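We emphasize that the prediction below concerns an isolated chain of 268 residues; any contacts that depend on oligomerization or on bound cofactors are therefore not represented. The input was used exactly as deposited, without trimming of termini.
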Amino acid sequence: MRPVIDSVPFAGPDLDALVERFENAGFAPQYGGEHVETGTETAMIVLPDGSALELLAPAGPDADDSHWPAFGDADAGPCAWGVDAGSVHSELQRAISHDVTVRGPIHERRETDRGVAEWDVGFLGGSDSPLPFVVSDRTPREYRVPDSTLYGSPLSGIGRVLLAVTDLDAAITRFTDLYRLPEPERDYDDVFGDLAAFPGQDVVLCEPDEGAVRERIERFGACPAAVLLSGDVSDAAAHHPLHGGRTLFGKRVRFVDGFDTRLGVVER
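Result of the prediction step, given as a token string:
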């Protein structure tokens, strides 16, 4: 199974503040409604290819049942990554056969202006696992993830999710076993450390030496360190405030102002 990215939750303590930060960076999040089961509310940035950033925050002062409360409290940004599954139940069973701890399936729902969205979700690995959550829709996907408003944008989709891990070799073994991926390419970056990218995949594993990404692992365990949106970097710079040019695996990368190195653009 090729892990096709469905969405990346981006957590904060207050949805209005999170939306304003993205608006200041040239994005236009769409309000997505409240998750009844988890006590959170969401706004969506849907890319032209259908993948999405899901801005996530508590729906009120007494809402404390989020899947990733520590990330929201810390305003930590990308807290997980999700892949589309034809059947969450089948994918969890497949993961179990590879000795992966699972949680779910969990039935979730959210009231939106398009109708009541319902879906199943399951989680792979422990609480600090770099593995994704899996999702399958019970209602039309556009109820949960609206159509993109970014057609004509220099950004086309989620190009890379950089997953910070404490043991790069062990993480490579886990991914290659579970998804039958080929041998990864290797690179190094002074922010993200040792890097491993699987050919044709959107996932990059990184083991940082020190600095903010290492501190992120020590605080949250293995987790996304950055989301890189795919696009024409030069054109994107005319629509979004970008900084910090660098190259990863031969592709030009710049980061979005106001998000440190947690959100960026990678050359398509």
